[in-house]
């Protein structure tokens, strides 16, 4: 049975619509195409590996991280160092000191102090053949000290080349000189006149180097560096840029189990730099917090002492009044005293006196805040509260006022920087004043409640005589003053105890150390995988795009599924110098393929006896229509069947050249009546094969082919020959072949591998399934046999499948994948 021919299935309309429609994407052909282009993937793999190796060795800048853990104690007295363990009377609580300390570590004020104090705006590196390596300050044999009053060009690499133990050559870039210089004194930019590139100069350690855009000197590092450097590259940056770079690389987290323990992380390109910075940062923070605590405690002690002196005078005066009333008016022994009410009033008024004392302290804090007199601020503990958020806002406000005073020397009052700093100050004021208002509201609310309770208790004492009530009032006044005095005295004792045992509330648990930590980034392995994967995707992407845009027929299975037209045979690639493959290479696989087509054509036309008219056509020229016609006719002639080959493609004659026949007279001459039939029939070297060439190109080929004379011509030939092979015009260009098919017994449609467009098959497929054409079969021509066929239709139809049977097999070498497959199969098939 002919492959693909199925006469038992009835065609319904829905099926007919699908005929001739090809899938948008052929996964099988795509995979075959990928395998055929394996060398591109291997090439990309090697290129990707090479690029990733160069990247990891010469370009990847390792990022390191070091950690420092510290503990925050709970003996803090200053709102500049707020207590983390206080639960506030208004429901506030939590790790307030930890939050404040985190803000301090990440604050501009703290890090700007470090940048200026430690010259962190000077960055050191060294450059090898390709890669630059960042250095810690201590890795450099010399330090660069800038003249802060002189303008300096920033982001301008200064190369120091060692010449001797204490001599260095200063090499500046060939270009890039800027007239906009940065002043570390005013932290602003200034402009100078254009200048030429400063020449290279050799200077000694301690000697000043001066140029229009730089002024610095070298200071010897008395710590012997561990590595010897051939060059030191120094880059200067602005204070603001340095602070921003530092803050962006600091991370602060709290221990999950103990929230008073902080873990501070610093990232950077040099591990020693991160270690040194963390230790210096925490050391400076400890000193500043201790100084803040001492200052605030001293202010608080002075404030409490002054108030105690004032209260002591009031207490003495009140005691004198009370003693006078006892001695002169004999009121020390009042009968029927309501001791319960009196005790209640005494306790309430003692609480009131304590709150009023706190309000007085709160007033002092507010006045200092409004007067910007931060150096005279007292502790919030004197006002009876500890609020980390309030303390942070006051600390921020103090830093902003200081910053504004510095900026006022540089900027005009209405400039944008000044407007921005004023806006930040207003926000900090709102935050701090809002917190104070909350405490005022709370204190006055408590006093109102106490007054109400005291009023209720006084109503019970209204029955006492006037003199006794005056004595009781004097006694209550004394008790209130005494309670205030005791409250202040207690707070003074607490303050003095803190001052006596004052120490930083920050204790380092684990300092930052260089213990050879591996880099945390970049993820070199992931980068390598991305580079290699990206390059491997490139050929895959190109193949995929090519596959989606490809409209050529490349897959036999897809062709048969789309057309449902029987396949008569597959013709391999023809490497012969002419079209006479069957005659010149009878033992080739191509010749054997034509013999298979000869057998299948009999099934296509049926065995009804008589002569057979076989028409060969295709979509367009170049698909091998004439080649198939010549070789099919040759195969039939060699099988002792009297055969004639008719060149009826009158527009493009071809047959005569391969058979070395004169095309002076042909079918076109006969159809116009110029010559007789015998004059156009030519003998060939095959006894049973004759050829009638097309003849000269006529002006009206369609009319000639459709004429009654041509029909009679075919009928006359059927009386003389067993097979008539018609090489007809392509149906994709002209309709002549469709008319000739009415008189043929079998029709062969030639499809060329990777040449025929898919859309060209739609018309012939529709006509076949609409029963407008019958006895139609496909011949797949010029198939690349090295791809393998493997669909099981007839013979293998390709080199390497005969294993010595065909002539081509002697030069055939199986592909590597096929050889590997066969080897594996032979191993598993061993018994």
UniProtKB/TrEMBL annotation:
The chain crosses the membrane at residues 38-56. Residues 345-372 form a coiled coil. NCBIfam families: eps_fam. PANTHER family: FERRIC ENTEROBACTIN TRANSPORT PROTEIN FEPE, TYROSINE-PROTEIN KINASE. It holds the Pfam family AAA_31. GO terms for molecular function: kinase activity. Keywords: ATP-binding, Coiled coil, Kinase, Membrane, Nucleotide-binding, Transferase, Transmembrane, Transmembrane helix, Tyrosine-protein kinase. It is an enzyme of class 2 (transferase). This is non-specific protein-tyrosine kinase.
